Amino acid sequence: MKKYNFQTVINVLDGVIPRNTCNIMRDDLIPFYFGGNKVRKAILFFEEVDAKKYDYIVTYGSSTSNHCRVIANLAAKKTIPCLIISPKEVSPESYNRQLVEMFGVKTVTCEISDVKSTIDNTIQKLRNDGYKPYFIPGGGHGILGTKAYFLVYEEIKRYEARHHTFFDYIFLASGTGTTQAGLICGKLVNKDENRKIVGISIARRNPRATEVIKKSILEYLKEVDSDLIEESLLCVDEYICGGYGVYDKKISDLIVDFYCKYGIPLDPIYTGKALWGMIDYCIVNQINSKNILFIHTGGTPLFFDFLQGRYERD
Ligand SMILES: *Cc1c(COP(=O)(O)O)cnc(C)c1O
C-alpha cells in the first residue's frame, strides 16, 4: 500500500481560549487537494476502488460539498468517470462546484425526497451499461471514513509521545459524524479515559447527531460495550445557528478576526462554527488550565465563498 505523507502540523495558538492552552491540528494543510478530512477519507475509498477495480464513481453531496470536490478531483486524476448526485438548491454558486465542473464530472440534481431512488436508479443503469460502479456515501461516511480518523487518532498519539504532551480535549466540527466516530474509536481502543472528544454539530440536532456517531462507532469496532460508547460520546448541538450553511454575525466576525490574528482561514459552514463552539463551550463549562486540541478539518474553498458573501446570514 502506498504511504501518504500528510505533513499535518500541530501548533500552539496563544489566546484563543481564555485560561487554557489551545493547539490546532492543520488538516487543512495536507499538501494536496486543499487538504481537509475529505482527503483522508477519499484516499481510503480510492484504495478500495483500485483494489477491486471499480470503473465508475458515484457519490452524493451539495454544491458546497468538500467531499464531492475531492472525490471528483481524485476520479479525474485516475481518469475514472464520476457522477455526482446533488439536491436542488437555492444558491448553487460555489468554488467547490466550479472545481467539480472543471474536473469534467457530471452532476445530476434531484429533489431531496428523491435522493435515494436517484442513487439506486443511477447505479442500476450503470450496471446495465456494463460498468462496475462504486458508490461513496455523502460526506464520505461509512467504515472507511471512520477508519481515516481512527488512523488520525494514532497520529495524535505519536505526536504526544514525541512532544511529551497530552491533549485533555479534542474539539472538531461534526457533520455526518464519521470524523468524530473515528477519533472516539481511537480513544476507546487506547483506553484514553482522561481525554474528552467534543464534536460541535454543524447541522444535526440531538439525539440524532449523537445517534449517527454511535452507529458509526459500532459499525467500525463491532464488539464494544454500548455504555462505554455513550460515556465517550459528546456532540453538542448548541452552535448550529439556523442550520447547515446558515451563520450569523458572530461567526463572520470570528472568521475575520481569526484570519487577521493567526492567518488561518475558517469557513462559516464547518470550522467557523466549530471554533466558535469550542471557545464558548470552554467558557460556559468553566474549563481551565487544560491542553486543548482543535482539529482544522479543511474546507479552504469555502473561505473564499465566504469572502464572496455567498452564504446565508441569520
Ligand atoms: C465534511 C466536513 C466536516 C464534517 O465531517 P464529518 O466526518 O462529516 O462529521 C467538517 N469540516 C469540514 C471542513 C468538512 O468538509
What are the defining features of this structure?
314 residues, six-stranded mixed beta sheet, 16% strand
SSE order and pairing:
Layout: E1 10-12, E2 21-26, H1 37-51, E3 56-60, H2 66-77, E4 82-87, H3 95-102, E5 106-110, H4 115-128, E6 133-136, H5 143-163, E7 169-174, H6 178-190, E8 196-201, H7 208-221, H8 226-232, E9 234-236, H9 249-262, H10 271-284, E10 291-296, H11 300-307
Parallel strand pairs: 2-10, 3-4, 3-6, 4-5, 7-8, 7-10, 8-9
Antiparallel strand pairs: 1-2
This protein binds pyridoxal-5'-phosphate.
Structural summary, described in words:
It is built from eleven helices and ten strands. It has helices at 37-51, 66-77, 95-102, 115-128, 143-163, 178-190, 208-221, 226-232, 249-262, 271-284, 300-307, and strands at residues 10-12, 21-26, 56-60, 82-87, 106-110, 133-136, 169-174, 196-201, 234-236, 291-296. The termini are far apart. The protein binds pyridoxal-5'-phosphate.
